[in-house]
Structure formats: structure tokens, C-alpha cells
Amino acid sequence: MENTLESKSSSSNFIKNIVVEDLKSGHVQEVVTRFPPEPNGYLHIGHAKSICLNFELADEFKGRTNLRFDDTNPLKEDTEYVESIQEDVRWLGFEWDELRFASDYFEEIYNRAVLLIKKGKAYVCDLTAEEMREYRGTLTEPGKESPYRSRSVEENLDLFARMRAGEFKDGERVLRAKIDMASPNITLRDPVLYRIAHTHHHRTGDAWCIYPMYDYAHPLSDAIEGITHSICTLEFEDHRPLYDWTIAECEMEATPRQYEFARLNVTNTVMSKRKLKQLVDEAVVDGWDDPRMPTISGLRRKGYTPEAMRAFCREIGVSKSNSLVDERNLEHFIREDLKLKALRTMAVLRPLKVVITNYPEGQSELLPAENNAENEAMGTREIPFSRELYIEQDDFMENPPSKYFRLFPGNEVRLKNAYFITCQEAIKDADGNVIELRCTYDPKTKSGTGFSERKVKGTIHWVDASQAVAADFRLFEPLITNEAEEEGKPFLECINPNSLEVLQGFVEPNMKEAAGGDKFQFFRHGYFNVDPKDTTAEKLAFNRIVSLKSSFDPSKA
Ligand code: ATP
Ligand code: MG
């Protein structure tokens, strides 16, 4: 079956227009992009947008894309993240041309800093971080020049070499670009290029105790790799002049250009790695891949598919202004993707036992059922039926309001794929809770036999009690809602206490063999994924990906 989810050709956007122009004018011969994560956390859905943009742009014009780790801040980085990021990019469906690390270029980046010093474009500064902040000025006032700005080239070369050699403590000195302390663009007020950090690096070990800053290392890394279009998010717009300054003053052969697009933000979704890490570190969630996390690994474990995620990223497009995307957009695409693919079966999440008093004891039968009413090719299966069943607790009410068409004493309903049953009696425990229903069935009403004498208004689902398979069902709500966060409370006090609900119920017996990652539509409950971590030989665990229906239409949003 053809997957129509992604078949529409990707629409135009301003970055693509630039690429088209650049190819036409001969400014570039081949499009080369990169995805440059910092390995300080797991990737989230915002990163997915950047990944799709970079890889699909190069793909469309037969170019190349590198995966480059921006590993210039060893304090926060870890190989666990390096590995998870590669796994997530591959899972999303992309293969990089080259795997690179900014740390591969440390020697060259250092040599270019020496060049800047020799050209009188960089100097070693001894101001403390505090003093540097004071000297920097504000948006309305120019900065003040550092007293160390006029150091001689020789002194700067000597001090910088000794910084590298480890003669100074963390924070004692930095290397700064000599640009313009009065620039209206604060980024250009002699930005720091190198800082001292006596820290073990996950790749270079203890070879270095000075590390280049992002704004300096990034353009050089791009140039070294021959990146043509360096795509980043809007907050780097002000940094673009520094990007260009670095490329020019460091006399790089290649001249990559930076383009900025709006960050993806999704309603009721935390999108900062710092906060996500806090949720993991404080054990609010079960790791980075907790199904409630907006990480790629969390969404995967919840049950999202790469197809749905890519279709979502395409649909929301690439823009120049920040906005908040409705989370229902994402949900729309997983429903669309699974609609014709997922086996539709019955699961009872909050079980109530039903005994069919006129069904012979010890007898059972197999009833045919369609696997997907909208996709005949998925065929049929047989489900067992016998004297004892489970239905949902809320499919019975002792004193129903009008318009309640499900079970109540004396009422008749249709059991999906089976017979009509009539409720005769509700059995209660000592506290008055209904614990079992006694019903009768009408053998003439077997599903598919064309019986039409009586009309019933309600259809409910069920599973056979003697053969059903026990399962856990996990239902989710947002970890943090936009309303909760806006109150200005500390982040961890905004956690939704109802973000996870675990129910113990039953699924049809043919699901015994279901494996981690298998996806199903449960009649009336929505789409579920078999949790790959918590499913054991003894018990299945299902994550609800999304409920069945929504009136939300992304094309009209
Ligand atoms: P965070 O602020 O969540 O920690 P980051 O920007 O620091 O994210 P990086 O690892 O530096 O994370 O990001 C790698 C790439 O992904 C960058 O090019 C960045 O611009 C992009 N990116 C990060 N978050 C988003 C987002 N929400 N939407 C689109 N692109 C994003
Ligand atoms: Mg970053």
C-alpha cells in the first residue's frame, strides 16, 4: 500500500529559494548542510525539525549533509548523548555523509586564533567575568575597552601559548576578538573566543585545557567542512556578523553563509534541553525516553513513527517568525499514518465482568472480525466468545441519564463482532460497587448473520474473560501545560500530577505475541504502542499514542 502521508512534494520556503538562486548563479556548485547538535542531552521534536530541514534540503538538490557534534563544552557533554543522537537521526530516516566532531578541528581552530593574534585581531584579557559584564555596556550604552586590549602581539602570543600549556586557572584569562566595543550589536563587543577549562573531554581527553566558544568554533567548523548553507535558529541572527567576521578574519578558503529560521515550539511541550535534563535528573520521568517526554526517543517509545514526524515537520514549514504550533498537529499526523496500517482490535481498560447466564457453561466459539474496516487487505481474524466476558466499567450505569444507550438494567446493546445482550442484574460488593453483571444473549443476533428485527442504539466492546491477555495501559497528559508554566512558578513545581495513569485491563488473546513497537488501534480508545522496555514475558504494557478522534484540522489551523 502506498503511503500518502509524505507523497506531497515538499513545499517551498525562503531557504530553499536561496539555495535555488545560489545554484543558478553559480555561487555554489553543490549544497552542503550540516546538523550540529551539542551532545549535552537527547534530541527533541524541535531538533527533528532542524534535521528534516537540513537533510531534505540537501537531498532535494543532490547535495550532502554532515552530522557534526558541536562538542566544545566538555563540562556538559557525554558519549551517551553522542550515541543517542546518532540513533535518533537514523531512526528519523536520515543518513549523514560524514560524521564529524568540532573537537576534530581543535588544532586548526587554535592555529586560526594565533593568526588573529598576529593580525592584531585578538588579545588575551584578564578581566574577571564580572568585570567583563560591566565593561560590555548595554543595548543603549556603548561598552568600555578592556585595559588589556592594547597588549602587544608578542605578549598575546606568549600568554595564549601559556593558556594552552595549562599555566593558568579556570576563568583567569580569556582570548577575545578585537572588534568594536561601541558596536550597536553587543555580539561584536570583543566577544570571547577561548576560555580556560581544566576539564576532561569525552573525545580529546586531557589534551586541551582551553576550549573555543561556540560563536568562534562554529563558523570555522562549517568552513572546514565546506558547508554552503549553515542553517540555525533565529536567536543567532545577531551573531551573523560575528560569523562572517570569523570566516573573513581567519582567512578561511570556503565562505559558508548562515541563515536563520524560527525555532519550533509546541503547545504544552517543554522544549529546552536544560529543563528536560532536570526532569530526568530529578526522576520526575523514567529517563530521556519516557513516553511523556518530547524527545525523539520518548515519542518513539510512545509510538510515534518516523513517517508521522517527518510529515509533521514538513507541514509546519519553515518560517522567519517564532510561533507556537498546536500539539494536535503532531497528533493528527500519527493518526493519519496509523489509520490504515494498525490492526483494529478490542481492549478493555477498566474491566467489569459480565456473565451471559443463558450461554452454555463450558462452551465457546470463534467469531470472525475485520482487522481494519478501512483497509480490507488487512483481512480478518477470529475472536473467542464464551459465557464470561469483560466490558468497560463505564459501559454500564445503574441509573443512566436519558440518551445513555449502553448497558443498564433491562437494556439491550450490541457486542461488537458478537451478539446482542440484555442486562438482567447488577451484582454489588458490600460497599455497593457493581462488580459483575448478569446478562442474557440472543443467539439469533450473531454478528454478520443479517439479523435486523430489532434495533439497538449502543455498541460496546468486550473481551472473552477466560482467554483474554492481561495488560497494562498507560494514558498520558502533558507533563507541564502552558498555563501552569506561565504563572512564573519554579519549573519543577509546574508538573502535572496526572501526567501518567496506569490501568490494568485485558486485550484479545491473539495479541499474546505482540512485540515492543507494535501498534494497534483499540476500538473507542485510540492508538496504542507496545512499550519496548516495560513489556515482559508475563505482561504486555501499552502506551496510548493518541485518542481516536479530534475535530482538529491542521490545514485549517
Ligand atoms: P535547546 O535550547 O533545546 O538546548 P539547542 O539549540 O541548544 O537546544 P543544539 O544541540 O545546539 O540545541 O541544537 C542543534 C541544532 O538544532 C541547532 O542548529 C539548533 O538551532 C536546532 N534546534 C534546537 N532546538 C530547535 C527547535 N526548537 N526548533 C528548531 N530547531 C532547533
Ligand atoms: Mg545549543
Automatic annotation (TrEMBL):
It is found in: Cytoplasm. It is an enzyme of class 6 (ligase). InterPro entries: aa-tRNA-synth_I_CS, Gln-tRNA-synth, Gln/Glu-tRNA_Ligase, Gln_tRNA_ligase_bac, Glu/Gln-tRNA-synth, Glu/Gln-tRNA-synth_Ib_cat-dom, Glu/Gln-tRNA-synth_Ib_codon-bd, Glu_tRNA_lig_a-bdl. Residues 30-339 form the Glutamyl/glutaminyl-tRNA synthetase class Ib catalytic domain. A motif ('HIGH' region) lies at residues 37-47. Residues 459-531 form the tRNA synthetases class I (E and Q) anti-codon binding domain. ATP binds at residues 38-40, 44-50, 233, 263-264, 271-273. One of its GO terms (biological process) is glutaminyl-tRNA aminoacylation. Residues 342-442 form the Glutamyl/glutaminyl-tRNA synthetase class Ib anti-codon binding domain. It catalyses: tRNA(Gln) + L-glutamine + ATP = L-glutaminyl-tRNA(Gln) + AMP + diphosphate. Keywords: Aminoacyl-tRNA synthetase, ATP-binding, Cytoplasm, Ligase, Nucleotide-binding, Protein biosynthesis. A motif ('KMSKS' region) lies at residues 270-274. The keyword Acetylation does not apply. GO terms for cellular component: cytosol. Its EC number is 6.1.1.18. GO terms for molecular function: ATP binding; glutamine-tRNA ligase activity. The keyword Chloroplast does not apply. PANTHER family: GLUTAMATE--TRNA LIGASE (PTHR43097:SF5), GLUTAMINE-TRNA LIGASE (PTHR43097). Monomer. Belongs to the class-I aminoacyl-tRNA synthetase family. NCBIfam families: glnS (TIGR00440), PRK14703.1 (NF011291). This is Glutamine--tRNA ligase. It comes from Paenibacillus prosopidis.
